[in-house]
Design brief:
This protein has six helices and ten strands. By secondary structure, the chain is an alpha+beta fold. The chain folds into two domains: 34 residues; 192 residues, Alpha-Beta Complex (paralog of FGE (formylglycine-generating enzyme)), CATH 3.90.1580.10.
């Protein structure tokens, strides 16, 4: 075979390969979307109205030097899920349960940020809604609004000795997750904003600020808030921000949802 024919053969083979990949990608996507999600799931995800308000977020740009940035933001009205997404809700959409600790009313965990994007794709396709992960400002505001504007407290109280009333954390969790909404809610009626499982957020909203510490981090990471069953009291504070790769999975990492107005 001449070099020219050999070159054309390789190009055609490569083209056929990519057509095969694209075809299979399309088939996979269609299969994912048409997988039936029970209509009753929409009613199972209870959403709480979070009112509009002015939010002052004090953010540490350089925590090693104690430098702080005050970010003022007017928060629009939105809805947030009353609890962390449970294993029964995840299974209704995904037909699997990746959680380490099993129980229908336990929060789903061991899910990555990327896994959640597929969950959202299927959920929104089948319900016609527009669910998403909360962004950082939404999560912080929903944790307590202007009452925890310094973020040095918790989602429900600023008193360390009262954290156990609102959260499952290392001192009371017995090294496990617990059924959602078995502790006290915060002022907006949201449960487990601290403890039980840490929660993925949509993107790194604070990185839009000029000269922020994390502004040069890649898109392959996102942020996590709230602390979990294995966190100490300090790591449950609203201000505690964890940077995580979007494909990591842990037995203390889950999420909750928001709907934009």
């Amino acid at each position: 075979m001449s070099s020219e024919l050999n070159k054309r053969y390789k190009m055609e083979l490569k083209s056929s390969y990519y057509r095969y990949l694209n075809f299979n990608t399309i088939l996979s996507t269609i299969f994912v979307l048409i997988t039936f999600v029970p209509f009753t799931l929409y009613g199972q995800i209870q959403m709480v109205d979070i009112p509009e308000g002015r939010f002052e977020c004090i953010y540490s740009d350089n925590p090693d030097k104690g430098e702080m940035i005050n970010i003022y933001r007017f928060m629009h009205r939105f809805k947030m899920s009353k609890t962390e997404i449970t294993q029964s809700q995840w299974e209704a959409v995904m037909q699997n349960n990746p959680s380490h600790f099993k129980g229908s009313n336990l929060p789903v965990e061991n899910v990555s940020w990327n896994d959640i994007q597929l969950f959202l794709l299927k959920l929104n396709w089948n319900t016609g809604m527009n669910y998403s992960l909360p962004d950082e400002f939404e999560w912080k505001y929903a944790s307590g609004g202007d009452e925890v504007s310094t973020q040095d407290g918790y989602a429900g109280t600023d008193v360390p000795n009262e954290l156990g009333l609102y959260a499952w954390f290392v001192e009371n969790s017995d090294s496990s997750t617990h059924p959602v909404s078995t502790k006290l809610p915060n002022k907006f009626g949201l449960y487990d904003m601290n403890g039980n499982v840490s929660e993925w957020c949509k993107m790194r909203e604070f990185d839009k600020c000029a000269n922020c510490l994390y502004k040069d981090l890649p898109d392959s990471i996102s942020t996590i808030y709230g602390g979990s069953w294995k966190s100490n009291a300090n790591d449950c504070k609203v201000k505690k921000r964890i940077i995580g790769n979007v494909d990591i999975r842990n037995d203390d990492l889950g999420f909750r949802l928001v709907i934009e107005p």
